[in-house]
Amino acid sequence: MRNGLPIVKEFEGCKLQAYPDPATGGAPWTIAWGRTKGVKKGDTCTQAQADAWLNEEYDEFESAVIKALGGARTTDNQLGAMVCFAYNCGVANLKSSTLLRKHKAGDYAGAAKEFARWNKAAGKVMAGLTRRRAAEAALYLR
């Protein structure tokens, strides 16, 4: 479906040279559209490689989120919002979240409110994460 892909692109941005995590100033190193797997300082990539990685990783996250949902009733937009969330926060965090628990229970309004709780990095509220979580919640409710 890839309904969350525009949000991933908007908030990750694409950088063709590796850069340190903005919250920590170091690890994990990131490249392309938020890729961290195997990235180290000094790495570079082409735009074509960045786009290919994005599609590959998005599909991997989508599969993991579908598995975590365990057959729970989910719209394409709800799935897209949760994939975008997992792309940024990790599948393990989604699996253990109140967001997922509420979604599975059919409390969609409650689940949508949970996105906002995930707006911190290294214990600090981040404006970009606050905007991203609002965008994910809006997609979830569409």
Automatic annotation (TrEMBL):
<dbReference type="GO" id="GO:0016998">
    <property type="term" value="P:cell wall macromolecule catabolic process"/>
</dbReference>
<dbReference type="InterPro" id="IPR023347">
    <property type="entry name" value="Lysozyme_dom_sf"/>
</dbReference>
<dbReference type="GO" id="GO:0042742">
    <property type="term" value="P:defense response to bacterium"/>
</dbReference>
<dbReference type="InterPro" id="IPR034690">
    <property type="entry name" value="Endolysin_T4_type"/>
</dbReference>
<dbReference type="InterPro" id="IPR033907">
    <property type="entry name" value="Endolysin_autolysin"/>
</dbReference>
<dbReference type="InterPro" id="IPR051018">
    <property type="entry name" value="Bacteriophage_GH24"/>
</dbReference>
<keyword id="KW-0929">Antimicrobial</keyword>
<dbReference type="GO" id="GO:0003796">
    <property type="term" value="F:lysozyme activity"/>
</dbReference>
<keyword id="KW-0378">Hydrolase</keyword>
<keyword id="KW-1035">Host cytoplasm</keyword>
<dbReference type="GO" id="GO:0031640">
    <property type="term" value="P:killing of cells of another organism"/>
</dbReference>
<dbReference type="Pfam" id="PF00959">
    <property type="entry name" value="Phage_lysozyme"/>
</dbReference>
<dbReference type="InterPro" id="IPR023346">
    <property type="entry name" value="Lysozyme-like_dom_sf"/>
</dbReference>
<keyword id="KW-0081">Bacteriolytic enzyme</keyword>
<keyword id="KW-0326">Glycosidase</keyword>
<dbReference type="InterPro" id="IPR002196">
    <property type="entry name" value="Glyco_hydro_24"/>
</dbReference>
<dbReference type="GO" id="GO:0009253">
    <property type="term" value="P:peptidoglycan catabolic process"/>
</dbReference>
<protein>
    <recommendedName>
        <fullName>Lysozyme</fullName>
    </recommendedName>
</protein>
